[in-house]
Amino acid sequence: MMIRFVLNAWLALTLLVSSAAAQESVVEEINQGTVGVIAGGIDGTSMRAASDLASVLDRGNELRVLPIQGKGSVQAISDILYLRGIDIGIVQSDALAFAQREQLPQLPQLIHYITRLYNEEFHILARDDVQSIVDLRGKRVNFGTPGSGTEMTATIVFDALNIEVERSAFDQALALEKLRNGEIDALLYVVGKPARLFESIEPDEGLRLVPVDYTPELLDTYLPSRFGEADYPGLVPPGGQVDTLAVGAVMAVYNWNPDNYRHTKVTRFVEAFFSQLEELQQDPRHPKWREVNLTAQLPGWNRFAPADEWLKQAIVANRSPLRTAFEEFVSENEEVATVPPEVKDSLFEEFIAWQNSRALTFALVPKAVNNPFFDLARDGCKQAESDLESVECLYIGPGEHTEQEQAQIVQDLIDRGIDGIAVSPSNAPLMAAVLRRAEEANIPVVTWDSDLLAEHASLRQAYVGTDNYEIGVNLAQLTMSLKPEGGSICIQSGGPEAANLNQRIQGIRDTLAGTASGEPPGVRLEGQGGWTEIAECPLFTSDDAAVAVQQMAEILAAHPDLDAFVPTGGWPQFVPAAYRQVVDPYKDRIASGDLAIVAADTLPMQMDLLGEGLSVGQVGQRPYEMGYRAMLLLKELLEGRPVEDPIFTGLDVCTQENLDSCLSG
């Protein structure tokens, strides 16, 4: 029936075209409304997105979208430039950057973008014996077809991590069969989750998704992401998650001259696409459409002029999407519906002023939420919520000290459009890579407790917290007051990439050595000033109190003549019962001044331990004030007010002699 219908339609059209001129007119009409969109493989997100565009935007001869299966992002860029019939391409953002860097430096003048689209995730599907990406070294790994976005992204990732493998270039469907048959060890695939190709995988097939470790270098280009059970029930266990990377997809177009007819038809496409985005974001269209924010920018690239103009006009005409909601309200209210347009505009301005007074949501992100030090910062944040008008404190962070999870949380906050972020970075370089996205989204950022590295300071507007170098200085001075001749020392820290803790270590080392070092964490003590760090130290706890107290027990047992044990944070004392059990046997040594235990922070349980003679001194911070001031800073920044940077919240130096007064005020 369908074939007969098409033939009849063709015959009818032929009869209508009674002359060459008429035929030419029909051909011109059809082609002027046809837009070719080059995408990826048949099962890829971009091809499904292009098919959605064809269905939703179809307007007959006025606008017809032709989805065209391509060979991947790298080839698609060439197709946009040179292949006839290609008007638009859906490509990966890293492919644009790669092509500009390696092939065409002038590419941003030749290709513009209509909008950033969704993110596509980097999948590593491997056999069960592969536990990490490093385990793939030397194994058989499929990188996808030549010229594909997957091949390019995989090459960048594996080169950055210095992992050499035996590469193959099968298409994804064939690669999956070869993986199942044991002919390869893993396949790599850049596709929006959930990938249709993986729907048939059963839990008992011996396959798994392999996590990708974030590095600052990778996060310069890619976004942190993760897979959950909801994405892949057959590959991710209940309650589990798999960390990975994501790359943004971009709708790209050749920078046609405005006089060219192809410029005109792409303009028509843009107007239809932007106007009907909401329809694309509904079922049964691909769920990735819900990630699209038309106003999102692509740094370093120019937006296609008609798309830019459409967005500007939408903002001017509507002030915001709120205009639609306001108009609906007016139409349903009989008393207001009939008032003159100028009165409606005045009412809308009042509505905008009211909307602007709504609650702002600011996130306070600690290194870990299971830490009593950060609990006090949370309390300060909540007090600010109570004191300030229209401010909500969202306290959110990883359960344990997990650098990658913290980075993912901040990325999620950026994606949801949070009003402001205050973060204590666990890994300063890693967090800097994520905060570049906040800068692009114009989300104000302050750091607290721990800052970014100096070269990344421009990514936040202010730091509020302790002068961390001074904490180290005071810890060292307390230690020297008991051990003026020096001795052996063990320094305990949290994470090796935490900028604040490295500054504290530097303060300790510089003060004990009597010389200034160039940069954190300073120069290891090997006899300077009479002090020597034992071989096992510094210790790194990952902010885990149980690990910290266990480390302390092992060091004190292995080094019975140790002169000083100095935690740069309060971790072992945050579990006071276990701490007492470890330190009680050394109480006489502490009392005699033979062993100096000096720790950072002055939380109530720590002050109790100091009073019991289980430490000789505490150097305290003021986390409550950090959480409170962080909220104030974010509100001031959104109001366009200048803020001070840095803001140091002060120190409290407590000993057994001033125990009752050191925290007063």
Any descriptors?
single chain; 665 residues; alpha/beta; D-Maltodextrin-Binding Protein, domain 2; Rossmann fold; seven-stranded mixed sheet; 25 helices; 23 strands; 18% strand
Q: CATH superfamily of the largest domain, called what?
A: Periplasmic binding protein-like II
**Rg from Cα:** 31 Å
CATH architecture of the largest domain: 3-Layer(aba) Sandwich
Strand residue content: 15-25%
Major sheet description: 10 strands, mixed
**CATH fold annotation of the largest domain:** D-Maltodextrin-Binding Protein, domain 2
Number of strands: 23
Shape summary: globular
Q: Which residues sit in consecutive blocks of at least 5 with pLDDT less than 50?
A: 318-322
Cα distance spanning the termini: 88 Å
- CATH C-level class of the largest domain is Alpha Beta
Helical fraction: 40-55%
Structural class: alpha/beta
* Average predicted local confidence, pLDDT: 87
The overall number of domains is 4
- Our count of helices gives 25
